[in-house]
UniProtKB/TrEMBL annotation:
Record domain Alpha/beta hydrolase fold-3: where: 66-264
Region annotated Disordered, chain positions: 1-55
SUPFAM superfamilies, sorted: alpha/beta-Hydrolases
GO MF terms, alphabetically ordered: hydrolase activity
Keywords for this protein: Hydrolase
Active site: S139
Protein name: Alpha/beta hydrolase
InterPro entries registered for this protein in UniProt: AB_hydrolase_3, AB_hydrolase_fold, GDXG_lipolytic_enzyme, Lipase_GDXG_HIS_AS, Lipase_GDXG_put_SER_AS
Annotated family: Belongs to the 'GDXG' lipolytic enzyme family.
Biased composition (Low complexity): 9-19
Top-level taxon of the source organism: Bacteria
Originating species: Pseudonocardia ailaonensis
Amino acid sequence: MDTATTPIGRLRAALLRGRPGPGSPLADRRASLEASVGAEQPGVRIAPDPDGERIVPDEPRADRLVLHVHGGGFVMGSPATARSVTAGLARACRAEVLAARYRLAPEHPFPAAVDDLVAVYRRVVARCAPHRVLVSGDSAGAGLVLAALAGARDAGLPMPAGAVLLSPWSDLGSVAGSPPADSDLDPMIMAWQLVEMVELYRAGRPAAEVSPAGLDLRGLPPVLLQYGDAETLAPDAAALAGALRAQGVEVTERRWPDVVHVWHAFAPRLEAATLAWDEVGAWSEDTWSRSGSGS
């Protein structure tokens, strides 16, 4: 039961109290998000990088790298604001994580973010064998992973060993046409924000044209897709899993009960987040082993 006495209930209550109201200025929301960044994450060290920042766990595997794309609805966020996710990735995968920096809308609408991420990926695979690389993303960042990998494929670049998609948001057309209803079960997502983000990102282009879900995704590497059944965007994630399979992509789809959008960020106080990271670690180990970068 979801009550104020359970960890997920307390989390939902706190998120509901902190939700910005409709029409809150984007600049204020950006500043609030950046101000919430923690200086340290246990078990990792953080260092600047020309492409963002590096998150290195204790005793990392030297032959492995995870390239991560942060969420924020294409208009907010940074490598720093993703540290609760990238630190979890680094610990789970026992690998260095490169959290990529990319340009944000509305100052830089589509396709600026995709172009930036293809360029970062090009630099990564120029210095690290592709079979030793995983690419990951959370929320809109997971959608950008798909767009960047499709762009890299079209540019003739080799694919990584696999991709990890955490609570992906990929179908911008459905949001623009019919926004989902707000839900107290997933206070991380508000319909008015989704609509605003799509409008700012597409900058007058048809929403379907800029939507990662509408891309040709054939030839992409194996995917781990995690999302929660109570998430506002759960139908989006489920449809994406089906679309990937229909295009011949190997998909491991994990639908978690009673969690919020990108619940991974709330480890270790949320047990489901810790367990989700355990699953990411096991999947990444298996994927790297099959690609030729195993123990």
